[in-house]
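Support reply, case 0932

Customer input (verbatim):
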Amino acid sequence: MYPEPARHTPAERAVTVHQPTPLPAAAMAPALVVPVQPHTIPSVASIVLPDGRVVTGYAINPAQPEPVMAKSAVSRAAVNIALGGIGFLAVCGGLLMLTAFITALTALITQLITLVAVIFGGWIAVQVFSTRSYQGGTTVNIRKAIFKRNKFG
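Our regenerated output:
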């Protein structure tokens, strides 16, 4: 499908020279000129070349170099190191606060468990040591032959 590439020796490549062909002036098509009113009238300059020709055209303002940024008193490396230190301290402070929060949460949970144990233990003690005549559950009164089963409350 594609032609085989032609093999050239290095000497032939060095000798091959391509010259551009200039276009004749008559063959060039004139560009369309669209009149545009300029915002300001630029100044016209004329220059005499060494061979005597005069070139007239608009003066081009020389390119202004970009202003040099003022060098800061502190180097970028020092700023980066300082910002890294501040970030490290922020992380350490956050971890310290997280540790304190976890410790407080653990203490709260421990106190709640203790409170529940005390309340439940007190309720059980009241149930065991109460002197009420009626007690829930299964009651068997052998003398009167009255059997109560599963009466709670």
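We compared this against your earlier run and they match. Two observations from our side: The beta strands are 44-48, 54-58, 137-141, 146-151. The chain has a mean pLDDT of 76. Please reopen the case if you see a mismatch on your end.
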